[in-house]
Amino acid sequence: MTENRNDVSFQFMIGIGLYLCLLLTAAIYWPGLGSPFTLDDIPNLIGLSQFDQVDTAVRIKQFVLSGGSGPTGRPLSLLSFMINDTNWPTLPWGFKYTNLMIHLLNGVLIFILSLKLCEIVNCRNRKKYWIALATCSIWLVHPLNVSTTLYVIQRMTQLSALFTLIGILGYLQGRQYMTTRPVFSVYYMTFAVVFSGLLAILSKENGVLLILYIAVLELTLFRQNGQKSSRLLFYWHTGFILFPIVLITGYFAFKMPGYISSYADREFTMSQRLLTETKILGEYITHILLPRLGAFGIFHDDYPISSNLFTPNDTFIYVLVTISALMASIIFRKKHPVISFAIIWFFAGHILESTFIPLELYFEHRNYLPMVGIIWAVTYYAFNTVSKIKPYIYTGLSLVILLLAAITYNSTWLWGHPVISGPTWASEHPGSIRAQQFASAAFTVLGDNDKAREHIVIALQYHPHDSSLLLQLIQLDCHNGSLNEKLLLDILPELTTAKYQHGAITTMMMLGKMAKSKTCQTLTPAKTREILTALIKNPAFQSKTSLHALYYWIGQLYAADRMLFPAIENLDIAHNYMGVIDIPLQQAVWLSSAGLYDDALRYVDKAEQIDNRIKNPFLRHTRRKHITNLRKQIQQLKRIYLKNKKSGK
After folding, report:
1. In terms of Cα–Cα distance, which of 156, 162, 160 is closest to 77?
2. End of a domain among 413, 432, 463?
3. Which of 28, 144, 185, 265 sits between 20 and 30 A of 553, alpha carbons compared?
4. What is the pLDDT of residues 456-483, one digit of tens each?
5. 308 DSSP β-pair partners
6. If pLDDT is split at 50, 70 and 90, which confidence band does 226 have?
7. What's the total number of domains in the chain?
8. Structural domain boundaries, residue 583
9. Residue 562 domain-assigned (yes or no)
10. Residue 561's closest CA among 528, 531, 586?
């Protein structure tokens, strides 16, 4: 009786510790919740204000199914952003608060997962609670997770991790019944993995790694001391782990030619990416185990590329260490299951985003779930050390948690003060285009146009042929009223050969809006059309998406000069590259305004045909009401025109 009471008291104490850790995490993240939207936030969330503002159900459907990220579009993540719909676009605080709550929930799930992992390796006394609490606490306050939690769009990573953790926990729970209730166990594991895996994938494609994480558990922790699985479990693993892995491998093999061709838009080849990633993975591990001030942030686009195995000199060492670590962890997984688990779990978590797919090289959010294995292994060994130093473990880990919290607080405070963080990150990463652009934006908000321009000029010194920087220089000079003809004449030839950057399209749209609204005297619609035409001539801007946007804005700028037929013609070209339904609707409005009602109705019919051909059944006919109303309005105007014409008015 006394022993049970002591166990309850101990578990209550652990619960209080977990609660205090959650409070500590919330407190250290609080200063960063007011930080602005950044990088991919606006392009991914702009649909919150662009779609149907009258019919809420239609707007939700349009936004959730409008995603262009990855094969799935990540609809579940987009749906979650509707929680903060009323905060868009002026209040990022609400979005980041939701991210923080998801981070705390994931911390609780990692606490439970750590308990389960301890039980697998026969660590079943009170020690397992201390290991779980330490693992959860270190992960929650670790500075490497700041750019996942405060970068709004990385809610996709958080939600994918959330459902992956639920799937792993469901699998482990179901697996416990295999010896006593095998049929129930199979149903339990199947439902947990399939349902959670689907939700994880609909949040972000990394959700497919759920089966790989389970495979890592089976190959390491469940194989200690020669443990063998039952025949039924073997069949389940074959059907729900091995077979999906083979299918996914086949899918990537099928997509490989496309990936290889996509490297044409990158500064590196596939082999250079693979070499560079070995160094980056080593740096990730260093930052997990030995974090330091100033090492964390979202700007790493200046990371040096390994051009071959010996350039830079340390590339060969990182490749050798990476291969050796993986081979050793596989060979000795039965003898040293915990350390093998940590290593293989980490690399398994990076197998999509840090290998052959032509993504950018370095992002801290890629460690959100992969780092869990390393942290758990460190705390496991810390609590299983020789008895002489055991009394110091609690004090040591407490100090580690407080130190991590201090580093994280410094980072979140910087996030919350962009006027300070902008120049700080720009000085730490002078060759980073994004860091310099972020600093420039911070000074623009302050009204310090000279400082804002200075950071773009610094970036151009490192990247003189970057299209986004050249366009941003025009935008800044327009903004402060100092744009001159000479700058435009100097930049126009550069744009025909400048390097492609996705940000160039966004800046080009901003310039188009400025020219259309005539807020910049020097940047007339005609001059802006010259800029767009220069980009069309650029071989780097020949993708369908780029050409669609460029011709669309040329058409808009002809319309701004009341030149109807060139406007219609360029929108026709834009529509040929991407059959967006809004284009014929826009053309119908223009033609109707010019009294060309029959032509306008033909474009309305064209829009209706597009609406009927939409493959996604959830999006089909969502514009039908708009199309019908526009047709009625044009027909009414036509009747009035014919009536007036007949009466001689």
Report:
1. 156
2. 413
3. 265
4. 999 999 999 999 999 999 999 888 888 8
5. 311
6. low
7. 2
8. 579-649
9. no
10. 528
